[in-house]
């Protein structure tokens, strides 16, 4: 009942750092935070290499840093490889630029970096597609080298991963069960409302006069990148468990475009500045207030979570944690991936022994997080939560309510 639908590259990197630091989760969070800030820096580099000014580059980089911190605050320093994959792919774009007759070596390096990013997180589609369309229009020779290198890199990566991890790698990544609903799309549109001003400011590049081949090329790329990112991000939001990380490419593309527009001295640049900064000024006060409350409650919150970890650590035998970090810090093995088990149940792919295990009281504790959407997705599909039903049928009862809405169930005394 343990699943993995992520490519292997991030596990190798974070695993290496984690072995040095002694904590895999903290290492993953540090890598994610570094990658997030690096994305802001790389966007600034791309703006300069596409003909923008230093002022526009600084503005574009700051927009990435500020929006990713304020609008996407829940993903700051989270142990997820999304920002790492974006950083690697943006590194590929930086190598490729400027795109005026790029050398074969630069195209090959860019393709390898973008392919590597795909083996960190495989839902990043907008940048590879946009570069492909852009090169097809701009330089057929570079496009051919790009496609050939990318195809060889992807095929080689799949062959190597299959050789190392077996056919299960292909099944886990390509045939992972997932449900789809319009609720996710609605949530995605709601999140994009916060980026509307930034997106409009990026599209203002179409209103800027393009008097040189570089300006025309940059305008085409930004338009392609932003449009494809909007479409692919919203499409991904149809899938259960896909959150606003699907819109990171939209943020990066919009910041790139806004930085290029802000490099111009015109009324259009002033309008772009107002559109870009306005939402930040509206969102920042409430977010700052939340962060201040979090800092004030940090000591109490830390003690509460430490109490949960201590309880789990003191329990002999297997423990099933929906919040996997709790079992990790308590020194317990990962027994159940609740979200992906939910998806497998909804997709009717195979039978799983969760009910049988709890019936024989195989888990000495079961931690459930009622704040997650997993239960909502189950209830809308089946009218009930079969995992909770299995606990109730086995006479598990809540014996401890912890911070963040978590509940720990225990089996009946023998």
Automatic annotation (TrEMBL):
Question: Is Membrane there in the keyword field?
Answer: yes
Q: At the top level of its lineage, which domain of life is listed?
A: Bacteria
Q: Does Transmembrane helix appear among the keywords?
A: yes
Q: Which UniProt keywords apply?
A: Membrane, Transmembrane, Transmembrane helix
TM stretches of this protein: 32-50, 57-77, 108-137, 143-171, 192-212, 218-235, 268-286
Q: What is this protein called?
A: Glycosyltransferase RgtA/B/C/D-like domain-containing protein
Q: Which organism is it from?
A: Acetobacter peroxydans
